[in-house]
Amino acid sequence: MEASQFKSDQYVRFCPGCGDHAVAMALQKAMAEVGVPPHQIAVISGIGCSSRMPHYISTYGFNTIHGRGGAIATGVKTAHPDITVWQMSGDGDCFAIGGNHFIHEIRRNVDLNICLFNNRIYGLTKGQYSPTSPKGFVSKSSPFGTVERPFIPSELIMGAGGTFYARTLDVDMPTSVDCLKQAHLHKGASVVECLVNCVIFNNGTHNWIADRNTRADRTILLKHGEKMIFGANQDKGLALDNSQSAFPKLIVVDANDPRVLVHDAKTKDMTLHRMLALMGYEKYTDMASFDADTELPIALGVIRSVEEATYDQAVHTQIENVRAKAKAKTFDDLTANLEHWEI
Fold it and tell me: Rounded distance, CA 307 to CA 304, Å?
């Protein structure tokens, strides 16, 4: 299939330079490579810049109300488990008004593919701070700097028992396409956090890792079964060190060091997954530490991918089991066996 088959005829209204353009293209390309036809796909969203995506993908779609994309997506997948369901959500739509729905679709492990667009700002409502904006961030709604600690998406997802988590950059198309394809292949709630730039209200928010001149040294692309190697010359690796305390920590070592770890995205123990997901995130939680140097890179790629029973399949299995044991097989059977009278 071709990516053009998944492009709608609607004019794309993202601002010129917005990172959402890149994610839309990556999504269309991933859908084409996966090969599920458009009539077997539904794209569901809430409200926000990224939530306009159903208008730009030539599949079934539903642009719901603010924060409720997860509830509708859960309903669609449970009613039609044969349909591939993609959910589009932003850091405000997902973590603020939609936070309750989000943690429960993760907890239930509904078989959804969730694209989480994180630009750390409310873009559609013109520049208020969001739940992922760093402490001290100055915006229209925090002119003296926000005093709140932000959500760290990966920490919230794993805390809710997430079975799949990946992270990608809007400027890295190959990684974005691969993460979206892996999300589709995973059976369960798949979350791909897309770090996107808001060129109007939070321009450069991910420049620390997005700049192509420094990206190789400040990010690491994790791949299941491969050594955790990074750097412009592929000369650095990640290892565990517990020499200083009872709690091991990740350190950077020479790429030839025998301690270099091999990434296991499929282990159910999320201890290391959580450590990998939080690497370097002090740069993202507090404006006071934004200029601080950190040796550890930001992890990109599929960090966690664990198979567990899915909510939608469990519901249908339960229905079939109840039907098999029930005397009434149809609605007519049920009404025929009930007490009735004539008036």
Answer: 10
